[in-house]
Design brief:
This protein is α/β, with parallel strands linked by helices. It is 24% helix and 24% strand.
């Protein structure tokens, strides 16, 4: 139901979906929606059988002409729509420009210590339609020509994920802190069973604990890093071994090229150590272009010198960002 809701309210014209997920979207072309074509992707190409009016994605790709008209776009042209759900009413649809992707690269380099390495392989079990997955790892990895493994799930026993990382020689895993904690519980000594090439684990949107930092270093033989990404403003903060030691209880420091501060209830800069709203100074290419079909909310959010994220945080004396409550 959620997928159909998103498709309806974003005026999407085409849907590309995996074969195993097609049954979860009860959508027919022209069925009270703007969808004009449904492309189903499967491992089989020439033998792939689709039903109804669906089309085989890879077959269409390989049989399509290489001649096409290039769209006239620029840095500020809308390019992405993300669904933001904060539990406070109907979802909001956040539109980002082409430049937003370029603006996310500094955070990717920062959290990866500016050294991807010749044998780097990335993997994330996160939702590949989310801002965290797409701008945090997938698009940047592809931008730099680094392989990223497609597959796996948010399994919390760890068996399937660790097997994937072993088989594909993953060097960097990007995952939620809850999944990493579950791995620690179920596989306290994972290298006794799995031959891992893991060098770095990046947790998204969560503070680091000293216990998890130590466990990752000793038992995974990997560094534990974190980044902070919002749907409206993209990657705002990250850790970086080359610049500073990851501090337990924090989510890193502001990304280069972005001014991230804590504002008090009056919109003024809050003193160090004081709680307030996390905000990014405008103009900023990684901040949303608009809330789709919500002009008043767009103009209000982008008015003034700051975009206020709605997240609460604290800056400590060293410039580290801590999440508030």
């Amino acid at each position: 139901a959620q997928n159909e809701f998103i498709l309806k309210h974003t005026a999407a014209r085409a849907l590309i979906i995996g074969e195993s997920n097609r049954v979860d979207v009860a959508l027919e072309v022209g069925d009270r929606s703007s969808i004009e074509a449904v492309f189903v992707a499967a491992d089989a190409i020439h033998s792939h059988i689709v039903k109804g009016g669906d089309r085989s994605f890879w077959r269409e790709v390989y049989e399509a002409s290489s001649d096409f008209q290039i769209a006239d776009t620029g840095p500020t042209t809308p390019a992405f729509i993300f669904c933001a759900q904060n539990g406070k009413g109907a979802p909001r649809y956040v539109v980002h420009s082409h430049a937003a992707l370029i603006g996310s690269l500094a955070a990717f380099e920062m959290v990866n210590n500016f050294e991807l390495g010749d044998n780097a392989v990335f993997w994330t079990p996160g939702d590949w339609a989310s801002m965290e997955a797409l701008f945090g790892v997938i698009y940047p990895a592809l931008y730099y020509g680094v392989p990223i493994v497609a597959g796996g799930s948010m399994d919390f026993d760890g068996d399937g994920s660790l097997e994937i990382m072993e088989a594909c020689e993953v060097t960097t895993a990007v995952l939620p802190a809850a999944q990493l904690r579950a791995w620690k519980t179920n596989h306290p000594n994972p290298r006794d069973r799995f031959d891992l090439k893991l060098q770095r684990v990046i947790v998204t949107g969560s503070t680091l604990t000293q216990e998890m930092i130590d466990w990752a270093r000793i038992d995974l033989n990997a560094s534990l890093q974190s980044d902070f990404i919002t749907v409206e403003a993209g990657p705002l903060a990250a850790t970086c071994e080359r610049w500073f030691e990851a501090k337990a209880g924090t989510i890193g420091r502001p990304v280069p090229g972005r001014t991230v501060e804590i504002l008090d209830s009056e919109g003024a800069l809050a003193p160090r150590g004081s709680s307030g709203h996390i905000a990014v100074r405008l103009p900023d290419q990684s901040v949303l272009v608009e809330y789709m079909d919500r002009p008043q909310e767009t103009s209000t959010g982008l008015a003034g010198d700051w975009f206020v994220t709605g997240q609460v945080g604290v800056n400590d004396e060293d410039g580290n960002l801590l999440m508030g409550s």
